[in-house]
Amino acid sequence: MRMRLGTAALFVLPALVLFGVFILYPMVTAFSYAFFDWQGTSRGAFVGFKQFEALFTKPPFTTDLPRALLHNIVFFLATIVLQNSIGLGIASLLHSRASTRRALQTLFAVPYLVSPLVVGYLWSLLLSPAFGPVNTLLRKVGLESWALPWLGDPTTALPVVILISVWQWIGFPVLLYGAALGGIPEEFSEAARVDGARPSQIFRRIKLPLLLPAIGTVSVLTFIFAMEAFALPYAVGGSTGNPGGATDFLSLLFYRTAFDSGATDAIGTSSALATLLFVVIFGGALTATWVLRRQERRLLG
Amino acid sequence: MTPSFSSTVHHGPIRRARPRRTLLMAAAATLTGALLAAGCAPSNSDSASTGTAAGAGGSAGGSGGGAASADGPVTLTVWSWRVEDTAAYRKIFDAYQSKNPGVTVNFKAFKATEYNQILATGLSGSDGPDVPQVRSYGQLQATLAAKSLVPLDDTLDLKGWDPTIVASAKGKADGKLYAVPFAQQSVQLYYNQDVFSANGIKPPTTWKEFQDACAKLKQAGVTPLAIGGKDDWTLPIVHEAVAASRFGGKEFAAAAASGKKNFTDPNWTASIQTVADLKQYMPDGVTGVPLTDAVTLFATGKAAIFPGGSYDLAMLKAANPDLKLGVFQMPVVDGSPAGATPTTAGWADGNFGVNAKSKNVAAAKKLVKWMSTKEFGQLVVDEIKQVSAVPGVTFSDPVMKQMSDFYAKNPSPYFLLTDFRYGTPSGGELFTKGMVNVLLGKQSPAQVGTDMDKGLAAWFKPQQ
Known about the structure:
The structure holds two protein chains of two kinds.
Chain A: H1 2-33, E1 36-39, E2 42-46, H2 50-57, H3 61-95, H4 101-109, H5 116-126, H6 133-140, H7 154-169, H8 171-182, H9 186-194, H10 199-227, H11 231-237, H12 250-260, H13 266-300
Antiparallel strand pairs in A: 1-2
Helix pairs in contact in A: 1-13, 2-13, 3-7, 3-8, 3-10, 4-8, 5-7, 5-11, 8-10, 9-10, 10-13, 12-13
Chain B: H1 2-11, H2 19-39, H3 47-59, E1 74-80, H4 86-99, E2 103-109, H5 112-124, E3 131-134, H6 141-145, H7 163-166, E4 179-181, E5 184-192, H8 193-198, H9 207-219, E6 223-225, H10 235-247, H11 249-257, H12 266-277, H13 291-299, E7 303-309, H14 313-319, E8 325-328, E9 344-348, E10 351-353, H15 361-370, H16 374-384, H17 398-409, E11 411-413, H18 415-418, H19 427-439, H20 445-456
Helix pairs in contact in B: 3-5, 4-16, 10-12, 12-20, 19-20
């Protein structure tokens, strides 16, 4: 038995070493940075949780951190509601069109293949108040009052960012739900139809419960995606999340703290922020998975 | 029917793969990215940081090549963030090499947005540059705090230089000089000469003339002021170009820097209002207009005036080589404090220093000393097309000469940058947030000042 354990350890060792050197070590180092004082790049004394305290007591964090977190949460909820429900709708509509399903799925996934930086740049060109075709079109068709500075007004900027994101990533739930729908045996629906169930009943009482694991997966992935959103907000609103911080996100705040501020203790505060971000996302994903698993068991069990 | 279905499901063939563990792994993996970004920052001298430093140094050719014997051949490595000036710098250092036989200057430029990280890594390891280009004012302090640069008070003699410019190379804590400023920037209003003459307008000399000119241009269907408020970092520059006289220029700057006045001062508030009142002359939806669109409006003659920095000159010329450019200084705004003059704000935006870990400190000091001479300054003007900070250089480009003259005649520090960037949140950052909100009508100018005072209180402790 002891011999076997040793052999097993030997086989695991290479992977463990690689994991330790390339993932664990950098992560733990980053965590550890958050607990020290920094003078530029030279590490000072151990200061415990002082850097974390600063995140909750010092400007700009006192105003920017709650605002950024709120935007991340709004972004997450809106993405869940819009992207995933529209995605599910499209997926189930496509599912019934066997001949064109493949082609249409590909079409929906095309924006997904373009870098979010490029997508953000293109949309900011399209929506530019001075030359953008969107506002020109709105004026041409007589909707003068709709020709707003879409990305320049805080009330419209965040919704526009969300809509651009939904437009880009809609292919993701379409593909995942498409695959999950394909995994549900046709016999179930047939049997239900024989029993006299309406299509809406079949969807609600058969397909939806069976899709639950897929919905859970998509939701948790969406949570991670939304909490670390960076490229699109950065391309649309810059590192300050303009206008006036209306499109600020946690990762932008991290970027500003680490790379833009030029503060002497930037490494300490930004590491603390990164650690906090990790805890929020990891904790959130953990909780969400746990809740979803329970729901799943309750429904299926 | 439900029970039968659910039991089918339960015993059915569909076994879901364990989504939990995969998801958590995905969460962990994606997050590693964010943490790595922080983790890459080097600590003082552990093996990880020297590893990366060696990487960066290796790509730069390193500096160890010419080990320092007193008169033997020496290779000096210069790092910079001005990739676009590489050819010009090579030419400049060729001039130095021909006068200093045995010295080879190896110029290496890195992408500006990545330069701070590369430099920090380079300076903490042993293969960094001998002469690094370093940032100015508050942005320099992190480099100094790491004790990466050699004090140069004994090497450099910057008497006769503008004190605002020299301050960019000094340590805030110890007041020592650590570098030589390589260029100065100033803020002014560019105008399109053809558009002005087509509308019968001359560069204004009074506030009324300026307002009349704007009204006339607007009537003619030309956007008077090309401002890209979506790139909100340009707004403090617009404010400084348009309303510096209204808050009292350098007098207010000195009073604010010493803590005698704060940003709730009525003149400061009024200067913000001055910009807000000009919103009617900016492009529609100005807070949504990117800088590139503002430049396009200006370069194509759809807009007449572009408030900007001297560093914008090359970009404006590139946008339209046929553009007939002129510059003017904003006349004194009505209601300005007594004795106000038109003023041009300036600052230094980069310096050259000597790496404390350089193996060739003496040779590096000699090179940096040369960078404070008129010879180098003139080369900066002629080759790099920047306004050199060295006193007494001459300009062949009329616009550049005009900008330098404006600053020489009525200088004021661009004080949000020169005095209020030594901590976070910086003065410029706070002002920018407020100015956007004022343009959007969401905040009053007085509120901007209150927020600035509140934010700055986190770190700004003036010695009274």
